[in-house]
Design goal:
single chain, 70 residues, mainly alpha
Amino acid sequence: MNAIISTFSNVDQADAVRAVLVVRPSYLQTAFDEIKKQYGSIDQDLDSLGLTVNKRKHMQDMCLNENAPF
């Protein structure tokens, strides 16, 4: 993360990037609360995006693979 932030010469830009890259529990909770309010559940939200159970399983397997490219 520091390598990304160091590419910004402007302190305000670096602070903005840092805010986006940092995971804060309050940010996640706000997102989860909004998803529940609008869709009823995370599963229903993902369904609305076209992410079927099979697609989600495939993505999960890819992300948990120790050879994943990220």
